[in-house]
Specification:
mainly alpha, elongated
Length: about 250
């Protein structure tokens, strides 16, 4: 579970609610018609922009923002180095029995092609194609939340205009102007809050998750090809270390 996402949303909501309560008028911030305009309108516009199955599948995308499936990159590199040592010592066919024991599906797929004697260029093309489709799927989820973040404030403004039009009809009664203006502005509040505390931050988190996963897979591609080329394990280790941050560059002796 990604505590950063949960802490961010919970603390953001808590700060806003606390500010509202301290203001003394919490009930005025609860307005169902305004919620319908903002969230219903943003969802409707998103449905127009994307396919229905993509929008319905957004829950699976949200899971990536709240539940991190981080890879132990150091262990992964060590695993690649172990395979390279065995291949260099006993030959590529010697690692055939170990391929099925590789937990990472992307690495396992690459090593299967190596054992099968697939040409290096073809291996790179296949793995990079799979990576490209992965990036495209991830980008679609990011785009959906970015769209929600764009449409929510817009429909908040639309709701405000609707409220202002209704308020202008009651100008003959000055006592109704203050309340009408407050209700009119609530939709703008909902739109801005949803966009800046939920939709846009989740889109950003998904983007970061995607970049991390892509980097790991690019590292795996280099490791697989290095094994096929018969490079020295120490050279492979140093090469793959470049994919890690300085804090991650700790290897077991």
């Amino acid at each position: 579970m990604d505590l950063a996402t949960i802490i961010g949303i919970v603390s953001g909501v808590a700060l806003v609610v606390t500010t509202i309560v301290m203001g003394g008028s919490p009930k005025i911030f609860v307005h169902v018609p305004s919620m319908m305009v903002v969230f219903g309108g943003a969802t409707a516009a998103t449905l127009i922009s994307f396919q229905l199955k993509e929008v319905l599948g957004v829950l699976n995308v949200v899971r990536k923002a709240f539940f991190s499936e981080s890879t132990d990159n150091v262990a992964l590199i060590n695993r690649i180095v172990e395979l390279s040592k065995k291949a260099r010592k006993e030959g590529l066919l010697a690692i055939d029995k170990e391929v099925n024991q590789i937990e990472d599906a992307f690495l396992r797929s690459g090593m299967e092609m190596v054992v099968d004697g697939t040409e290096p260029e073809l291996i790179r093309n296949i793995m990079e194609t799979e990576l490209s489709y992965l990036m495209e799927r991830h980008k679609r989820g990011q785009d959906i939340f970015s769209a929600l973040g764009e449409y929510a404030p817009a429909f908040g403004m639309i709701g405000t205009l609707i409220g202002l039009i209704g308020m202008l009809q009651n100008l003959n009664d000055p006592t109704q102007i203050g309340g009408g203006m407050a209700v009119a502005l609530i939709t703008t509040f909902y739109g801005a809050l949803a966009a800046n505390l939920v939709f846009n931050p989740i889109a950003g988190k998904l983007k970061n998750r995607s970049e991390e996963e892509v980097l790991v897979k690019e590292m795996i591609i280099e490791g697989v090809l290095s094994i096929q080329f018969g490079e020295h394990p120490n050279t492979i280790q140093r090469k793959l270390m470049n994919f890690l941050s300085p804090k991650q560059r700790v290897f077991e002796e």
